[in-house]
């Protein structure tokens, strides 16, 4: 069902272990740290492979995320 390149990408990212939401206070902080670690690893892998295609940020609590993404079409960078 999943192709080999997707499996390779997922294997290189640390998995999330903590099941928590923003209402879980202390567990949420642990979950948020795991999410940041995974995102940092994913972005660094993309930059090494020259596949940098998004920027992502969150508020201090980690409850609202925002960012930019783009793609290249006919040698033009298109932002979404």
TrEMBL record:
GO terms for cellular component: cytoplasm. It comes from the Eukaryota. Keywords: Ubl conjugation pathway. InterPro entries: UBQ-conjugating_enzyme/RWD (IPR016135), Ufc1 (IPR014806). Pfam families: UFC1. Transmembrane segments: none annotated. One of its GO terms (biological process) is protein K69-linked ufmylation. One of its GO terms (molecular function) is UFM1 conjugating enzyme activity. Belongs to the ubiquitin-conjugating enzyme family. UFC1 subfamily. This is Ubiquitin-fold modifier-conjugating enzyme 1. It comes from Lutzomyia longipalpis. The lineage of its organism: Eukaryota, Metazoa, Ecdysozoa, Arthropoda, Hexapoda.
